[in-house]
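Hi team,

Below is the intake form for Haloacid dehalogenase from Wolfiporia cocos. Please confirm the fields before the structure is written into the shared record.

FORM ID: S-0412
PROTEIN: Haloacid dehalogenase
ORGANISM: Wolfiporia cocos
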Amino acid sequence: MALSPMHVLEGVQAFVFDLMGTCTDWHSSILAAMRSHLIPPPLNDSDLPALAAAWRAGFFETIFVSFAAGDQAPDIDTVHAKVLDKLLNERGVTLDVWDEEVRERLVKAWHLQLPWPDSIEGIQKLKERYMVVVLANGTTRLQLDIVRSSRLPFDMLFSSQLLQATKPDPEIYSKALDLIGLHPEQAAMVAAHAYDLRAAAKLGMKTVYIHRPTEDPDEDMALIRNQVDIFIEGTKCSDGLLELARHVCS
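The structure came back. Fields below:
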């Protein structure tokens, strides 16, 4: 960790979590879904990790464009479907190979995700002393499906659909805090996305960055360490959220 959490997180009563990428390994989940179908020519198995990464990047690009334009965030399943169609078309994968039914199953695969190895135990331990809630872009149904499939023990789920605002709009953080009755300094935002934490920090929330292997590939980790209150390694062979929980609950 970059700083002592017992000091930096003094007064915190709730940990507010991003979901996909932060608590769940979407990449492994989506790869498994893709490999459950006959891999369409001209693609081969070695192309699938890059396709999954491009799919995720395309989702973020669409959401950020919508946010910058001041538009309401589009339905996440609709975004995933459109981005997938675009990526497959660019790669020469036609509907007669991966038809609408297959593509719909792949879109629904985003609702069924594996937790990172440290997520369940880390969140459960934090829950013994703090409120643990989700605040993430997407629909409430998406969050329900992910939490049920991953067995993550959250107290409450706040979606952008429910709050009618999209991260990084400061309104979404404020609305969530109002609903749990806390001031910004009484809550810590936990995410594997620097943009999310930068927005939360501007509001006055504490920030915990967890470095996941699938997230923020273009960010400078050394820079992020200096921007957040706590920096946690959440990559292979690290304790991730469990390390945070041990420190603040000891």
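SUMMARY LINE: The two ends are 15 Å apart (CA to CA).

Thanks, M.
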